[in-house]
Specification:
The chain is α/β, with parallel strands linked by helices. It has two domains: about 230 residues, Type I PLP-dependent aspartate aminotransferase-like (Major domain) (Aspartate Aminotransferase, domain 2), CATH 3.40.640; about 140 residues, Aspartate Aminotransferase, domain 1. Helices cover about 45% and strands about 15% of the residues. The strands form four sheets. The protein has a seven-stranded mixed sheet with strand order 4-10-9-8-7-5-6, with helices on both faces. Helix 7 runs parallel beside helix 8 and helix 12 runs parallel beside helix 15. The radius of gyration is 23 Å and the shape is globular. It starts with 16 loop residues before the first helix and ends in a 6-residue tail after the last helix.
Length: about 425
């Protein structure tokens, strides 16, 4: 049989993005410039290594699979089977876990899988409320988890620290099936052993959502949830420095069977092979000895920024941090988070408005800001640069407190300093 060497029948198939879609191409180039010239302080954001980016853009993106390694519903899956097994083994090694599931598309879906695995419709969950540092997927009324299950919340004290006595009282009163700790803006160490004791007293399971400090756990800079908790969930894109996605780990292998069934076919169909591939790469990077140095610098940078802001008169929730998060309470300055966020973005210092404990404002306004140090640390910045950033943040916030808004809160000197600092630490040095 004679076969001709044919080009793809659709001409666009081999054209570049510039040729096919100039509008999208312009936006992509603009975003590349923005990220390079701004200081990224949004807590969930980080940068992939060159190796992980290659994995995301590899031919694995064109693979379609359902099920688990050795038990797929499609043919032609031998290579992704091998990759997923490697990712699972590395995830277990990172967290000393009995079981790992690397398929969740996000941290929220990882949490949904735990609800599906452990609870029946209407069961009671005990978690931290959003303003205290919890997460939408921990039972907030606007989320599926809050609509399908009964959620009660434990409080934090006036300093913003978890009130473990209140947790115990709520557990005894409501007898939850699941207790959740961790979240999106709680900056302090969680006493996992104490939580486990409370859960044991009422026969509950414990879920630790460690998305914002999982890299610190792996790097030895934060206390380990195992063996105290039953399940860990995390994202892989924050200080694990991986692609956007979720990860579930269980202490016991037997519990892993329920989790696997909850992910597929429970809440997801096919996973994303390119993301599993990139997760495997980033897990391998996290197991390297130099990752501990990265985690150490992430924490040191966060503490340096917190201390620098405090010196300039800004209140830090809980008085400091044990994580990559710095929570700024602006109530004493009579400024809201949305106004502060806008001014800082105009200066090239991107962060996000955030609720603080006992916040009187709505979630789209807020009384606080959330700062994260994962991305600046990946760029190579250390405490010297973190101290400069604290000063730049304070300079802009001082102007906002004085009544300036948006771009008017930045001086030419501030804008120059931000750009110079950014360009001194390129995201991908040549």
């Amino acid at each position: 049989m004679h076969l001709r060497n044919l080009q793809p029948s659709l001409p666009f198939f081999i054209k570049s993005l510039d040729q096919v879609d100039p509008a999208i191409s312009r936006s992509v180039r603009s975003e590349e410039g923005r990220q390079q010239d701004q200081i990224e302080l949004i807590a969930p954001k980080n940068y992939l290594s060159v190796a992980s980016r290659q994995a995301v853009a590899s031919m694995m993106a064109f693979t379609s699979v359902e099920g688990y390694p050795g038990r797929r519903y499609h043919a032609g899956v031998g290579n992704i089977d091998e990759i997923e097994r490697i990712a699972i083994a590395r995830a277990r090694a990172m967290f000393n876990a009995g079981h790992a599931n690397v398929q969740p598309h996000s941290g929220t879906q990882a949490n949904q899988a735990i609800y599906f695995a452990l609870l029946q419709l209407g069961d009671t969950v005990l978690s931290m409320e959003l303003s205290a540092g919890g997460h939408l997927s921990h039972g907030q009324k606007s989320n599926l988890s809050g609509k399908w299950f009964k959620t009660v919340f434990y409080r934090t004290d006036t300093a913003g620290l978890i009130d473990y006595e209140d947790m115990q009282e709520q557990a005894l009163q409501h007898r939850p099936k699941l207790i959740i700790v961790g979240g999106s803006s709680y900056p302090r160490t969680i006493e996992f052993e104490k939580v486990a004791s409370i859960a044991k007293s009422v026969g509950a399971k414990v879920l630790a959502d460690v998305a914002h400090f999982s890299g610190l756990i792996v790097g030895g800079q934060y206390s380990h949830p195992f063996p105290h908790v039953d399940i860990i969930t995390t994202t892989t894109n924050k200080n694990l420095r991986g692609p956007r996605g979720g990860l579930i780990l269980s202490r016991d292998a037997d519990l892993g069977k329920l989790i696997d069934s909850a992910v597929f076919p429970g809440i997801q169909g096919g996973p994303l092979p390119e993301m599993i591939t990139a997760k495997a790469v980033c897990f391998g990077e996290a197991l390297d000895s130099e990752f501990s140095e990265y985690a150490r610098h992430v924490l040191a940078n966060a503490r340096t920024i917190a201390a620098g802001l405090q010196k300039r008169g800004y209140e830090i929730v809980t008085g400091g941090t044990d994580t990559p998060l710095v929570m700024i309470d602006l109530r004493a300055k009579r400024v809201t988070g949305d106004i502060a966020q806008e001014a800082l973005e105009a200066a090239g210092l991107t962060c996000n408005r955030n609720l603080v404990p006992y916040d009187p404002e709505k979630p789209n306004i807020t009384s606080g800001l959330r700062i994260g140090t994962s991305a600046i640390t990946t760029r190579g910045m250390k405490t010297e640069e973190a101290d400069i950033i604290a000063g730049l943040l304070s300079d802009v916030l001082d102007k906002v407190v004085s009544g300036a808004r948006g771009a008017d809160a930045s001086t030419p000197e501030t804008l120059i300093a931000v750009k110079e600092l950014s360009r001194s630490f390129p995201i991908y040095p040549h």
